[in-house]
């Protein structure tokens, strides 16, 4: 049955990282100066995301060679991904956030740690010290001149290293970021791009005039001044003291949940994500400090890839954010009493709802109201993105994961370190009493 990290493994709190150089990398050839339109989905995601990708030592690729190859590959990739060398700016005529494709460059940082990769210990358990492996911003640049992408290479004493990437979420979603990594890896191997990126964000422009044809309870209108959207986060950080645990579901646990979810309803897709999300939804809603109110409504939010759902479909090579927020809402009474298969059906229905017209309506809604996803909590799934599957000249990453922050209203799914293992790790942060209840329910609903 699912396991729980009862206590964090021993964590090194200071990785003793020394930065040796910090510079701007420019495109390897001239790019066109232009402004890039950002969709209403991109605009909502104006915040930075950090990921770390750990690599074991390779005899043919010592860290200095890796640094050289990655810096050259970054220079080359900034030509087809010209927006990545640009800067965010407001277009005062249109009152819209855009990317000024001005070839100002991406950040490139070279650093080293006094530890070996093995000494860092459990890579799966999010270590706050991993923040030392990424650069949040370039201190020598003004706030309005910050790169949209900063890559840091930190070498370990063993010859292994970690590639830390900070990028503005407006540039990529998870799928397009993986494609970017595949292209970066290919260029580092002196090969051509794996896939030519499609940078046309106008493909997700709102209709003119906007037509909101659905009610969109998953979205919240916010009256905020134009240009200050980034100040109003979709989920506010809570000042509460939070306990932090990782719950691990093995492939057998997921198979058992799928068996419980079997239904004759042909519309219900009994996928690994749907059953795990439903299991976590029940635990989260019923562990809430108002969980005794069985009439209380709980809403789960999760991202759905809209690329294949649009008419015509978005190109698979689309670089922008091609995801929208799906939702499911139920009373705590239903979450406690209804058959698991019915609850899985509700989660599946959230994705089924995401037709071309629904997606276009949500985008048009953003044009009119400039709001954000709204629900009790959001599942952010890194589970099947496959960052660790990318083949670099020095091999695949031993482990890839986001640099995470404890948030009560965001639950993370991320893969186990064994790439062949289809299990999932679930990162939960809750106040102590709610965590105790969550833990009890997690086991109870798995039985």
From TrEMBL:
InterPro entries noted in UniProt: CAT-like_dom_sf (IPR023213), Plant_Fungal_Acyltransferase (IPR050317)
Q: Which parts of the chain span the membrane according to its record?
A: none
Write one Gene Ontology MF term: acyltransferase activity, transferring groups other than amino-acyl groups
Give the Pfam families listed for this entry.
Transferase
| Source species, domain of life | Eukaryota
PANTHER family linked to this entry: ACYLTRANSFERASE GLAUCE, TRICHOTHECENE 3-O-ACETYLTRANSFERASE
UniProt lists the family membership as follows: Belongs to the plant acyltransferase family.
Q: What is the protein's name according to its record?
A: Omega-hydroxypalmitate O-feruloyl transferase
Q: Which organism is it from?
A: Vitis rotundifolia
């Amino acid at each position: 049955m699912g396991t729980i990290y009862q206590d964090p493994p021993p964590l090194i709190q200071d990785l003793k990282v020394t930065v040796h150089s910090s510079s701007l990398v420019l495109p390897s050839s001239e790019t066109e100066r232009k402004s890039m339109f950002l969709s209403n989905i991109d605009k909502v995601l104006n915040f930075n995301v950090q990921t770390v990708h750990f690599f074991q030592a390779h005899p043919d690729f010592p860290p200095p060679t890796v640094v050289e190859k990655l810096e050259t590959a970054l220079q080359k990739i900034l030509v087809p991904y010209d927006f990545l060398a640009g800067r965010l700016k407001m277009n005062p005529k249109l009152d819209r956030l855009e990317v000024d494709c001005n070839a100002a460059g991406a950040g490139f940082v070279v650093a080293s740690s006094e530890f070996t990769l093995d000494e860092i210990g459990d890579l799966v358990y999010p270590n706050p010290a991993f923040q030392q492996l990424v650069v949040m911003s370039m201190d020598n640049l003004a706030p309005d001149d910050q790169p949209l992408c900063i890559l840091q290479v930190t070498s370990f004493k063993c010859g292994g290293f970690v590639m830390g990437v900070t990028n503005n979420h407006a540039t990529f979603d998870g799928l397009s970021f993986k494609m970017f990594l595949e292209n970066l890896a290919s260029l580092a191997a002196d090969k051509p791009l794996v896939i030519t990126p499609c940078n046309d964000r106008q493909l997700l422009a709102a209709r003119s005039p906007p037509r909101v044809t659905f009610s969109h309870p998953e979205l919240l209108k916010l009256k905020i001044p134009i240009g200050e959207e980034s100040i109003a986060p979709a989920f506010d950080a809570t000042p509460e003291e939070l306990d932090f645990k990782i719950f691990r579901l093995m492939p057998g646990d997921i198979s058992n949940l799928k068996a419980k979810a079997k239904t004759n309803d042909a519309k219900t897709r009994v996928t690994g994500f749907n059953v795990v999300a439903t299991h976590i939804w029940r635990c989260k809603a019923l562990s809430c400090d108002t969980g005794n109110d069985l009439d209380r409504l709980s809403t789960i939010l999760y991202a759905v890839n809209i690329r294949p759902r649009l008419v015509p479909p978005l190109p698979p090579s689309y670089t922008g954010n091609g995801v929208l927020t799906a939702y499911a809402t139920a009373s705590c009474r239903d979450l406690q009493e209804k058959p698991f298969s019915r609850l899985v059906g509700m989660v599946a229905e959230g994705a089924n709802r995401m037709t071309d017209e629904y997606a276009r309506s949500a985008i048009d809604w953003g044009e009119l109201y400039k709001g954000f996803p709204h629900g009790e909590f959001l599942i952010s799934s890194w589970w099947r993105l496959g960052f660790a599957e990318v083949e670099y000249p020095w091999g695949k990453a031993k482990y890839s994961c986001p640099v995470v922050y404890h948030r009560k209203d965001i639950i993370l799914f991320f893969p186990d370190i064994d790439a062949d293992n289809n299990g999932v790790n679930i990162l939960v942060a809750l106040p102590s009493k709610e965590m105790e209840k969550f833990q009890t329910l997690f086991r109870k609903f798995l039985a």
